[in-house]
Specification:
418 residues, alpha/beta, Rossmann fold, 2 domains, 15 helices, 43% helix, globular, binds uridine-5'-diphosphate
Length: 418
């Protein structure tokens, strides 16, 4: 079958147009536009994909996002008018837990994709891999196409999340093929180095957010009460895909120690086949008789309005979170947040000043903290106000994109001049 792909919103970009001839150019080398080929393995809308959308938007006049599979991510890019292209062949079947045998089998699927990307990369200055499988493909393609490779690391490369072989492959390819690794937190950077990654390769750039998108949100409470039969009371939002390590069960367990007024909104769905987990969660809720207190809202695209409608956001990951977009989104939406004290979350929250940190996987302690928040509306308001100011100053999308553009420029320059 011939290699085919679909191009959407691909705006014509003349090769090497002088900067003053283009509008909104993000990266410039020697006065000329820099062209970036972004790679992402997923068609689903996870945090990595939402963060990439924000970066790629900045490069939309001279970048292209190449997706290894179709899905809602492609629709999101289309809505943001970011040029993208979806691969028409089946996606790679390596999972985070893959062993050697599966890895070898997937080489057969991998090689045509590498060839495809290497060919596309000829007309770009840089390959930018946004996910682990994208790194595997991007690394080989970068060697074939002789283009610099940047790896945006948005995962904690630990045993909890990745099989030993997957970690080894990621570290070896990053160490040998990437000219730069961008980590989305100190925690992510540390895990990379602990796994054998070269410290001089890696720079931390926190995810950026546009504060305007979180201002002046409509209050959805009356609509939600009607549509999902949620009673008035103290509303706790949990915003994440439904997955064991995102810890929705920890919040459900904590509910046993809380009073009748508490209502939990679980926002998100199982994105990567975690249907067993959803069933176990539903069984737990039934078992505890909490059906009127826990509400599944499914995947939503009106996150800021939902957050603004909650009294508290709980972030209950049981393994270290690489960054935790939800935490900053809650802060910008004016909703106080309590998060598991681990990974990136500890870098985003100043405990007792811009939110609260709670020991991970400890429903009793979580319930105690939630109870205290519930009893102190003035403190909640104070924390929410401080958090909003801090988040809009520290996690500005504009600044993040400028830093990333600057780093990419440096690395392209360095490669072209060597
Ligand atoms: N999210 C969403 N709709 C949902 C649930 C979550 O758009 O129904 C978004 C959420 O607002 C956040 C992202 O998904 O921006 C999750 O990112 P995070 O860094 O918290 O976790 P990840 O998916 O990267 O593990």
């Amino acid at each position: 079958m011939p290699l085919k792909s679909v191009v959407h919103y691909l705006q014509p970009v003349d090769d090497w147009l002088p900067i003053d001839k283009q509008v909104g150019i993000a990266g410039v080398i020697n006065g000329l536009a820099m062209k970036v080929l972004f790679l992402d393995q997923s068609g689903q809308l996870g945090g990595a994909e939402l963060s990439l959308t924000d970066v790629a938007k900045h490069f939309k006049h001279q970048g292209l996002v190449y997706l290894f599979e179709g899905g809602p991510f492609a629709d999101k890019l289309a809505a943001a008018q970011v040029p993208y292209k979806v691969r028409q062949r089946p996606s790679l079947s390596i999972s985070k837990e893959s062993g050697l045998w599966q890895g070898l089998l997937s080489l057969r699927q991998l090689l045509p994709l590498v060839g495809e990307v290497a060919k596309m990369a000829q007309t770009y200055d840089l390959i930018y891999a946004n996910t682990q499988k994208a790194l595997v493909v991007g690394a080989m393609a970068s060697v074939l196409a002789r283009k610099p490779l940047v790896y945006h690391l948005r995962d904690i490369l630990s045993a909890e999340h990745f099989s030993p072989i997957n970690r080894r492959v990621a570290i070896t390819l990053a160490n040998t093929c990437a000219t730069l690794v961008i980590a989305n937190s100190q925690a992510t950077r540390q895990a990379f180095m602990d796994a054998g990654g070269r410290p001089q390769l890696i720079k931390v750039v926190y995810n950026g957010f546009d504060p305007d998108q979180y201002e002046g949100q409509p209050l959805l409470r009356p609509v939600l009460q009607q549509q999902h039969a949620i009673q008035e009371g103290f509303w706790i939002g949990h915003f994440s895909r439904l997955s064991p390590w995102k810890g929705q069960h920890v919040l459900v367990d904590a509910l046993q120690y809380l009073d009748e007024a508490v209502q939990v909104l679980l926002v998100g769905k199982a994105l990567f086949g975690e249907d067993d987990y959803v069933q176990s969660l539903q069984a737990k809720i039934l078992n505890f008789g909490l059906q009127d207190h826990v509400h599944f809202l499914g995947f939503r695209s009106d996150i800021p309005a939902l957050m603004a409608s909650c009294d508290l956001v709980a972030h209950t990951s049981t393994s270290p979170e690489p960054f935790g977009r939800v935490i900053i989104e809650s802060m910008l939406s004016g909703c106080p947040v309590v998060a598991a004290k681990d990974g990136g979350a500890t870098e985003l929250i100043d405990h007792g000043k811009t939110g609260w940190l709670c020991p991970p996987n400890d429903p009793q302690q979580l319930a105690q903290m939630i109870g205290e928040c519930q009893r102190q509306p003035q403190l909640r308001q104070k924390i929410a106000t401080q958090a909003r100011v801090q988040a809009s100053q520290t996690f500005s999308l504009e600044q993040t994109n400028q830093v990333i553009a600057g780093l990419l420029q440096q690395h392209v320059r360095r490669t072209t001049s060597s």
